[in-house]
Amino acid sequence: SPVAAVRSICNVCPAATVTRYSVCPRATRFSVAGTPTTSVGTAIVTAVTVQNHEGVRDVFAIPPDVVASQLEALLDQIVPLRLRRGDTTAARAAVERRAEEFPAHPRTALAGGRVALAEKRFDEAANELRRYLELEETVEGQRLLATAELRRRNFPAAIAAVDRAMQLRPNPEPALLRLKATVHAKAGDYPVVLQT
Q: CA-based angle 106:159:188, to the nearest 5?
């Protein structure tokens, strides 16, 4: 379970338990996937303490479902952050770890597709992204699939994916419009490029 995953990556106190009733007062932050807790946005608050320099007076445990939601939100950002820094090795390691811990989670497939796309393994990226989109359809998933299909020179599939992304977001951002124009230009469909 996600709460068990939080418990397993505690770097403050291995004896910490995350339940509604019992929390180690020193273990209020957890490192995610090997990222130090001093990094911005990589800590999960699991409890709020009332304390001063003499000690802890009270502990309020954050409900486990909220902790699990925060863990999921942070895990979703690890691969894109690593890829933005150009660290495909760390991104691939994060995907492998996530695949071990959450093999059936849709975002595991999305992360795998992102890494495969960054490493120019376009067939694998397209397959992973299709698997993700079967489980959870998002604009980002369709955009990435369109990019993978464009790189594979499968223009009809790329056009279908970018069109679906635009259906999901009726007021698309400029990057999505540029992708659509790029796909049509590479396909040689110049009249549509001018309309985009």
A: 150
Nearest to 145 by CA among 104, 88, 131: 131
Q: What is the rounded distance in angstroms from the CA atom of residue 46 to the CA atom of residue 3?
A: 10
Integer-rounded Cα Rg, in Å, for the chain is 21
pLDDT over 90 for what percent of the chain?
A: 38
Average pLDDT estimate for 60-87: 81
The answer to whether residues 183 and 162 touch, using CB atoms and an 8 Å cutoff, is yes
- For residue 110, the number of C-alpha atoms closer than 13 Å in the C-beta half-sphere is 21
Which two structure tokens, joined as six digits, stand for 3? 């709460």
- Location of structure tokens 């379970």: 1
Interatomic CA distance for residues 29 and 11, integer angstroms? 8
Q: Coil, helix or strand for 173?
A: coil
Structure tokens at 69: 């939601």
Nearest-angstrom CA–CA distance, 61 and 46: 6
- Neighbouring CB atoms inside 10 A of 25's CB total 16
Q: What is the pTM for the complete model shown?
A: 0.66
Segment 9-36, tens digit of pLDDT: 343 333 333 332 223 334 334 444 444 3
Q: How confident is the model at residue 79 (pLDDT cuts 50, 70, 90)?
A: confident
Q: What is the DSSP letter of 33?
A: T
pLDDT of residue 102: 83
